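Query structure, 348 tokens:
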């Protein structure tokens, strides 16, 4: 191989390696492999001195051309690599000026909102929140609340029964009200007692605009020395004002529940009309809205729990959360609340 052919081979080889060099490190290695101290082209240039003058001129010129060409190729390769890396980082760049994609946020169900509001109000009045089982013993749901097996009051709570038993005890049912927690709580706590009991209840109902087979209640129970009907009325009046507005008046009328004596039902004056508008969607002209049953805890219940009813008295109340939700938001059909239609629910 002549010296000129050798230069051509070095150049061809160097171009091939350069084309494969993928980064700054590889370029530097290539550079010293060609132009460095022990570089392939350096060896040729060093050997020029040993050549005859005629040959030296031709080989020197060829070597210089190859050197310039390879230097230019190096610069070009460097540019190409730089452009490629810029393009790559532009491709996965984050444009912080783009508007974000909106997140679909949920909201609390209207019944949940109202349940929380009820419990907040009672918490401020000193009532702790406690919960009880939805599957309940007949004994707590009826018997110890003075509703014996053939008592007509059971007709009002015709119910879902279960075939199971717990710890050998039965019959079991889906509780028809939260009142059984009155018994469970006085069995396990000493007066003074002040609790609010939220929870689901189930009744064998034919559903219509104001009845569902599942409903939520909040039960209230206070037991202490010297509690009277005045304390019940004051507590419920304050509740009604905070729930429905400071102008609200409450009406207590006589009612009957076997586990209270006396028993009352509580109504608030209509907050949507002056009380005389037959077209009012909330009271339909009645002027008063019934919102709960209540009364003084029956002395037999206090005695059965081991306390002297001459010393300890108490009051209890039970309200329907859906009912209060409907009144508060002007909802006219209770079935809308659990139909899970977002077009309905997202209005509240
Ligand atoms: N448990 C009764 C009902 O579901 C309401 C009530 C509770 C009445 C407490 C008086 C005292 O209708």
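Result returned for the query:
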């Amino acid at each position: 191989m002549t010296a000129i052919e050798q230069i051509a081979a070095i150049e061809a080889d160097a171009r091939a390696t350069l084309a494969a060099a993928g980064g700054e490190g590889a370029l530097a290695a290539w550079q010293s492999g060609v132009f460095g101290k022990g570089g392939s082209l350096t060896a040729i240039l060093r050997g020029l001195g040993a050549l005859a003058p005629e040959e030296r001129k031709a080989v020197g010129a060829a070597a210089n051309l190859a050197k310039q060409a390879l230097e230019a190729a190096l610069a070009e390769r460097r540019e190409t690599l730089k452009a490629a890396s810029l393009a790559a980082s532009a491709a996965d760049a984050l444009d912080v000026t783009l508007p974000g994609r909106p997140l679909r946020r949920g909201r609390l169900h209207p019944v949940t909102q109202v349940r929380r509001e009820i419990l907040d109000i009672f918490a401020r009045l000193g009532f702790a929140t406690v919960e009880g089982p939805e599957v309940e013993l007949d004994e707590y749901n009826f018997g110890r609340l003075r509703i014996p097996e053939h008592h007509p009051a059971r007709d009002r709570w015709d119910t879902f029964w279960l075939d199971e038993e717990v710890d050998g005890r039965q019959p079991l049912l889906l509780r028809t009200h939260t009142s059984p927690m009155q018994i469970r709580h006085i069995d396990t706590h000493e007066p003074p007692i002040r609790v609010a009991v939220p929870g689901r209840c189930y009744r064998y109902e034919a559903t219509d605009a104001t009845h569902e087979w599942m409903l939520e209640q909040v039960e209230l129970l206070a037991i202490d020395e010297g509690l009277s009907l005045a304390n019940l009325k004051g507590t419920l009046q304050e509740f009604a004002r905070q729930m429905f507005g400071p102008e609200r008046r409450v009406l207590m009328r006589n009612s009957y529940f076997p586990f209270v004596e006396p028993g009352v039902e509580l109504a608030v004056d209509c907050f949507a009309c002056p009380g005389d508008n037959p077209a009012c969607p909330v009271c339909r002209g009645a002027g008063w809205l019934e919102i709960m049953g209540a009364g003084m805890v029956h002395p037999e219940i206090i005695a059965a729990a081991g306390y002297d009813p001459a010393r300890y008295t108490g009051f209890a109340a039970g309200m329907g959360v859906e009912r209060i939700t409907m009144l508060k938001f002007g909802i006219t059909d209770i079935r809308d609340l659990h139909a899970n239609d977002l077009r309905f629910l997202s209005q509240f």
